Amino acid sequence: MNEKLFFKAQLYFTAIITIAIFTLLSWNYFHEGVPSHHILNDKSLPEISNWWGALLLPSLSSFLFYTLKKRVVIKDENQNIHRFPINIVYAFISALILGILLSVFFTLGYENFPAYILLIILVSGLFFPIYRAEYFLGFVIGMTFTFGAVLPTVVGFILVLIGAFLYLGIRPLILYIVSRFLFRVVSRDQKTIK
N or C end: fewer C-beta atoms under 10 angstroms in the chain? Predict the structure, then answer.
C-alpha cells in the first residue's frame, strides 16, 4: 500500500468516526436531548456539551491517524512501502475495550472499578507505549458514548503524558537497574565457577 492508499484509509476512518458521532448526537437530540457533563462530575464546575464532540472527534481522529502514518509508511528510493504492524490494531482494540469498561462501570455505579481500570492503564504504561496515537484514539472512542468526546480527550491526554513519562523515563531506568543487577550476579557466578 502506498501513501495515497493510506491517505484514503485515513479519510475513510475519519468519515466513519464523523458519521458515528453525528448519529449518536442525532439520537440524543431526538430522544432526551444532547447531554452535558460537569468537569470531574462536580456540579459546581462548568459543564461541557456533547455537541463539541462533533468537531473534536473527527479532528482528533484525522490528526492521530496522520501521526500514525509517520510511523507506518516508510519511504524507499523507488516507491513508498507500507508496513502496517498488527500490534497497532491490537493496541487500538485493547484501549477501546478499556475505555468501554471504564464507561460501563462508571454508568453502573461501581465507583471503585474505574479507578482500578485507570490503575491498570498506568501500570501497563511501564510495559507498553500507551502514549501513542492508537492507544489514545481507542480510549477516547471507547468513552465517547458515555462521556462525550471532550472529557475523555482531556483524561486521555493526561494519561498520554503520564504514559510517556513512565515508558520513556521510568522504564529505561528500571531496565538499567535490573541489567546492572543481573550483570553483577552473572559476573559473581562466573568468578565462583572459576
Answer: C
Give the whole-angstrom CA distance, residue 17 versus residue 57: 7
| End-to-end alpha carbon distance in the chain | 57
Q: What is the pLDDT of residues 83-141, one digit of tens each?
A: 567 888 899 999 999 999 999 998 898 878 888 888 999 999 999 999 999 999 999 99
Q: How far is CA 74 from the centre of its chain?
A: 23
Please list the residues that pair with 82 across neighbouring strands: 73
pTM value is 0.83
